[in-house]
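Fold it.
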Amino acid sequence: MDIGISDADRAKIAQGLSRLLADSYTLYLMTHNFHWNVTGPMFNTLHLMFMQQYTEQWNALDIIAERIRALGHPAPGTYREFVKLASIKEVEGVPKATEMIRLLVDAQEATARTARSMIPLVEKANDQPTLDILTQRLEIHEKTAWMLRSLLEE
């Protein structure tokens, strides 16, 4: 394979994208879980907001996984792999609505940090397609974290 990125850099980028995919999938699952289980006075607002968020996240999973494949590496695709790779931990039980929001803020920020951590390597490797994905994911995760944080203000 010769796309202008060394084998070693492609492997490192694929590894980083695998961590991003794991964080993104864990965030997707958490958001969908909260969509199903949210209760309380903010039910309708949160139920709809969480649906918009998990739908966007679901679509992003394919983009990340396909970039890993385009770099010549297999994309992780099992819960076992995701648990090992993700920086986000699974939530036990069903938290109250406000705690759901806090957990999602933390998970959105963690996913943004994972994406941001890859930028120096991707820039050094001159990998514009991956940089484009990272920039788009950062914008979405930072904006979503801000919107969720705004719900916690009095």
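The mean pLDDT is 96.
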